[in-house]
Automatic annotation (TrEMBL):
Native source organism of the sequence: Mucilaginibacter polytrichastri
Name under which the protein is recorded: Acyl carrier protein phosphodiesterase
Lineage: Bacteria, Pseudomonadati, Bacteroidota, Sphingobacteriia, Sphingobacteriales
Length: 225
């Protein structure tokens, strides 16, 4: 799941460090895909750092339930199929695109149906102290936390996730993600075709998209009982 979908499960939480922890694995990948940390089994005496660790574990749990769900398997496959005509000549792998597209559409649907707000998400990130994040990264084994901290400040400043409320921008977001792997993933014509396909598929997903959030919420609740 993408940033805002992870935020949905803790949208009423008040602990900013927990919220940051729930999206930190993906933020680190975006900052530098070579970063590999496994803090989920560590314990720190500072409750704020422990909250980051707890949020990190929540991220892993949510992704596990999501990626094993019939909902994800169905929609990522269907999106792969409907996007294929727009990918002729593109180096992008259709399965990768179907996977990412399904996650971005879910973020868009959460925003456009007013289940969450982007500002609510960013307000939590802004509330986290730089020194606590830095200490968490050192404690988790990161050699050069400055790489992430520079990226994180830019991520907060850009407020980029506000663009996800515009369905037409989802194709652009897909291109940005693909550019981390392929320098020139799509032509302008391909991007335009993808935009039309995604707008149509979003309408198909809208009536039942909350099913996956209910499924994961129930799975998380069962896990703690």
């Amino acid at each position: 799941m993408n940033f805002l979908s992870h935020f949905y499960f803790d949208r009423d939480a008040t602990n900013c460090y927990h919220i940051l922890g729930t999206v930190l694995p993906d933020l680190l990948k975006n900052a530098d895909k070579s970063i590999i940390l496994h803090p989920e089994k560590l314990h720190h005496p500072d409750s704020r750092i422990q909250s980051l660790i707890g949020g990190w574990q929540k991220h892993l749990d949510v992704d596990r339930y999501f990626h094993s769900s019939d909902f994800f398997k169905h929609h990522s496959h269907q999106l792969k199929l409907v996007l294929l005509p727009a990918l002729v000549g593109s180096p992008v792998k259709p399965f990768f695109l179907g996977h990412i597209a399904s996650e971005l559409i879910l973020d868009n649907l959460l925003l456009t149906t007013h289940k969450i707000t982007v500002d609510g998400f960013y307000n939590h990130l802004d509330s986290c102290e730089r020194g606590i994040i830095y200490e968490f990264l050192i404690f988790s084994g990161m050699k050069n936390p400055d790489v992430f901290m520079k990226f994180f400040e830019g991520f907060k400043k850009s407020r980029y996730l506000h663009t996800y409320i515009d369905t037409a921008q989802v194709a652009y977001a897909l291109k940005r993600i693909c550019m981390r792997v392929w320098a020139h993933p799509f032509t302008p014509e391909q991007e335009a075709k993808m935009g039309d396909i995604i707008i149509a598929y979003r309408q198909l997903m809208e009536p039942t998209f909350m099913d996956i959030f209910d499924h994961i919420s129930n799975s998380l609740a069962a896990q703690t009982n």
